[in-house]
Amino acid sequence: MRAPRRAKETFNYHHSSLRNIIERTFGVWKARWALLRDMHVNYTYKHQVSIVIASMAIHNFIRKVGRFDEAFNTAQQESYNPRQGRTSNEEVSATSNSDHNVLYMAAIRDIIAQDIMDS
């Protein structure tokens, strides 16, 4: 595989890498805390927020002080596919794709891409 050469290629490479890490982290988090997968059915929004914050704090504590984390070691394997780690299409909120938003985000991407190239 060839290395990215231009600013947008470099941005896309780093963006994709970061997105993979984030998706794996959420997959491990949901695998570790099964409650997170279906809590929208049994808990009010206020309680869901508290559960997410509490489980995130415990998860981060385990990551920081734990010498061995089986969930993350499993996720490091290339063939890792978290159980029910993906959200359904109904759970994904729609985003507005107005011309203004598209242009604004393209400008932000270009600024970040140039910063990456400059560093």
From TrEMBL:
Compartments where found: Nucleus
One GO cellular component, as annotated: nucleus
Record-level Gene Ontology MF annotations: hydrolase activity; metal ion binding; nuclease activity
Family from the record: Belongs to the HARBI1 family.
Protein name (database record): DDE Tnp4 domain-containing protein
PANTHER family assigned: MYB_SANT-LIKE DOMAIN, HARBINGER TRANSPOSASE-DERIVED NUCLEASE DOMAIN PROTEIN-RELATED, PTHR22930
Species: Tagetes erecta
Domain DDE Tnp4: 7-60
Main location: nucleus
Co-factor requirement: a divalent metal cation
Region of interest (Disordered), residue spans: 76-95
Signal peptide: none
Keywords on record: Hydrolase, Metal-binding, Nuclease, Nucleus
Keyword Nuclease in record: yes
